[in-house]
Design a protein that fits this description.
By secondary structure, the chain is α/β, with parallel strands linked by helices. The chain is built from 6 helices and 6 strands. This is Methylated-DNA--protein-cysteine methyltransferase.
Length: 176
């Protein structure tokens, strides 16, 4: 496991509400829905669970490239992210997340399709579990995974946020 000397964070506003962005020396490692005040306990548990030691430091400079690209995405100026990622999870989770990164902007795939792509066609529920544990939503586009029937099912930040992200990408029409 890579050594991380410090963990940097900053907050941003988004169409989904506030986001807390966390980066290590190696890249973006966590995005939480909510302000730091609301997510600090969750972030600390995640860091401890993943054996990440290092001070949690407010540092806009280290996190700004992520915030800039997220803002570009939200405004429709960016379809792909070009950021270093510090992906932390089990071997299976990382396989699923790497597969999710291949789903193009404006497209969706079902959990069943993802299971087939990774060579585990019976692992649909496990795909859902890995999707739920995705530490870097939006950048690793777990919002692009839908039910086999086309339904918007499950999203760590809530299905309402998934719907907003898919509206931004033009997958679904805005419901007003």
């Amino acid at each position: 496991m890579e050594k991380r000397s410090a963990i940097f964070y900053d907050e941003m506003d988004s169409p989904l509400g506030p986001l807390t962005v966390v980066c290590s020396d190696l890249g973006v490692c966590l995005i939480e829905f909510g302000t730091l005040d609301n997510t600090l306990a969750t972030i600390k548990v995640w860091l401890k669970k993943n054996f990440i030691k290092g001070d949690l430091i407010y540092c806009n400079e280290r996190v700004q490239p992520v915030i800039t690209q997220l803002n570009q995405y939200f405004s429709g100026e960016r379809a792909e992210f070009d950021l270093p990622i510090d992906l932390i999870g089990t071997k299976f989770q990382c396989l699923v997340w790497e597969t999710l990164k291949k789903i193009n902007y404006g497209e969706t795939k079902s959990y069943k399709q993802i299971a087939k792509e990774i060579g585990a066609p019976k692992a649909v529920r496990a795909i859902g579990g890995a999707n739920n544990k995705n530490p870097i939503p939006i950048i690793i586009p777990c919002h692009r995974v839908i039910g086999s029937n086309g339904a918007l099912v499950g999203y760590g930040g809530g299905v309402d946020k998934k719907e907003i992200l898919l509206e931004i990408e033009g997958v679904i029409k805005k419901i007003s």
